[in-house]
């Protein structure tokens, strides 16, 4: 199966392709400007792999939480490519991608399987967090809470922690990784294993965007 993965959820603009044996990938930390960078990056990666969009069997894209604009760019591009190529698009949350990488790292280290609490920073001194099984299956809905609340939860469960937000839990924890943006190769591997019917490419914002649309009225001086 030939799979394309796209991540624009946070500061990275990342693309990866797998044909079942070889993997091509590129992660670029750009902060902003995903709309200008993404499609040239996809075209370059397809060229490097010697493929076209019509060779793809599946497309995987991060769905958030993350940047409001970045998520819209990545999901729109994945949907457009999927429609043009006639292939399914699989959505993977940022936290699920982090949990999958954490589970992989735990297995490679030979450690016992444990629950995984994936965490990334939100706004206003809060974190996005979600609990996953040792195999990166979601066990609870996405939560937004303080670092103190997640610290207490992690201690209660005795779970592994992962993601950039785990750095705020203190010295008692040894995070399996401290990534903010997902690993695009982990996204690629995880998305290839999921059922497209139950993992649609729908955005997960976690919180409303900072900017609110203008609701009308008269501006007065």
From TrEMBL:
Listed Gene3D superfamilies: 3.30.420.40
GO terms for biological process, alphabetical: tRNA threonylcarbamoyladenosine modification
Residue ranges occupied by any Gcp-like domain in the UniProt entry: 31-163
InterPro entries named in the record: ATPase_NBD, Gcp-like_dom, T6A_TsaB
One Pfam assignment: TsaD
Record's GO cellular component terms: cytosol
Listed SUPFAM superfamilies: Actin-like ATPase domain
Domain of life according to the entry: Bacteria
Coiled-coil segments on the chain, per record: none
Ranges for region Disordered: 200-221
The protein's name in its UniProt record: tRNA threonylcarbamoyladenosine biosynthesis protein TsaB
Organism: Kaistia hirudinis
